Amino acid sequence: MIQRYPTKKIYVGDVAVGGDAPISIQSMTYSNTHDVAATVAQINRLHFAGADIVRVAVPDMEDALALKSIKEQISLPLVADIHFNYKLALIAAESVDCIRFNPGNISDKTKIKEIVKACQERNLPIRIGVNAGSLEKEFDNKYGPTAEAMVASAEYNIKFLEDLGFDNIKISLKASDVQRTVDAYRMLRPKNHYPFHLGVTEAGTIFHATVKSAIGLGSLLLDGIGDTMRVSITGELEEEINVGRAILKDSGAMPDGLNIISCPTCGRIEADLVSAVAEIEQRTKHITTPLNVSVMGCVVNAIGEAAHADVAIAYGKGKGLVMVKGEVVANLDEKELVDKFVTEVEKMAEESK
């Protein structure tokens, strides 16, 4: 398990963020927020996909006024995303569980004071959402749209909120490219103890967003940085959750379910490995116990990987072995191996509860 950077624990609704809390996964609806039925439907989709927190855009007063009805119909904590018009945050604060504001387009300190006051009265956290594409002019003019500018903006706004006696804070530092995003988070992390919301913004379609987020968020998670995260994808809502969970799992930040180790395709494979792995993935997707399992297609890879896995198949020509903790428990024809393997995995998962 990765050693995470120690941070202050805050609460977005009933979901803890920071401290020893699990790293939470977020997404954002794309409906017009004032379309209550459509927005609730999308939030419910995210709930069933496994999201922990959901954010909605609040670009106008009609959207802000719809938040009360939305909140009454959902179970996920609700974050209001506020840009330009601080008055929308004051209305939103009456119904939501967190306010995110962008200091690049709400920079008037008298307006930020009003947002802070509304959140203080209701014990709501504030996310200071710094974005490289919309920095305050003083930081953009001094540094350009750089990681240094993002960090300077965050530090300035953190201090402003602290000077108002407010420390129920989380922070995001998002850019559309991986390097600036990672640099900014790494630069700011040692300077405060507030929880970080991770994300590479405007990351593109599912293929590009998956690659960018895996590199950027994965790098930060391996450094122990990050308390909550969103994978930004131009596409279906559920994919953001699926990719986020995979990044947490495969980085080792939050083990969840099976880590399936399988051979790359090559000329040594002595079985229909592609079909076998696909069947195993389908039949074991309900298992949440962290286990390392391997499905090896030839003796070259099987010797080491199968011996060190919790449960393994080592294929030979027309037959193979099922191994548990390196011990052979079955020597079967190829067509029987997957059934035996799944049985052993389910058994170990149940015993590990």
UniProtKB/TrEMBL annotation:
Catalytic activity: (2E)-4-hydroxy-3-methylbut-2-enyl diphosphate + oxidized [flavodoxin] + H2O + 2 H(+) = 2-C-methyl-D-erythritol 2,4-cyclic diphosphate + reduced [flavodoxin]
Top-level enzyme category: oxidoreductase
GO biological process: isopentenyl diphosphate biosynthetic process, methylerythritol 4-phosphate pathway; terpenoid biosynthetic process
Span of domain IspG TIM-barrel: 7-244
Ranges for domain IspG C-terminal: 259-347
Keyword Repressor part of the UniProt annotation: no
E.C. number: 1.17.7.3
Function comment: Converts 2C-methyl-D-erythritol 2,4-cyclodiphosphate (ME-2,4cPP) into 1-hydroxy-2-methyl-2-(E)-butenyl 4-diphosphate.
Record protein name field: 4-hydroxy-3-methylbut-2-en-1-yl diphosphate synthase (flavodoxin)
